[in-house]
Amino acid sequence: EEKGIKAYAIVALSHCWLTPEHPDPKGEQLAKLAPVLRALQSRGTELAVFLDWCSLHQHPRATRDEVDGFAAGLTHVSLWFAHKNTHVLLLTQLPPSWAHTTPYSQRGW
Asked: Which of 34, 29, 56, 58 is nearest to 47 (CA)?
């Protein structure tokens, strides 16, 4: 940390959306993610976490600013995952109750 500038560990999450409306309607993926984030935070570092659903405007996008903001964010979203100082977490295993949906390995942007 430099003179009042706080350092954060940047975390980006890659995960399966379980439904088109909500990526984790029952919180099952969050239940797997939370202990990992707690472990990272236990090192005494503040975390900045990128979750696409929370970080980009989702449907319905009500204003032109939301539409433009989503488009701009989507254009540059790979930077969160490619930066050398980002901790990238991959939630590749679907919750058991969602085993009927497309697996992580067969999904893509």
From this structure: 34
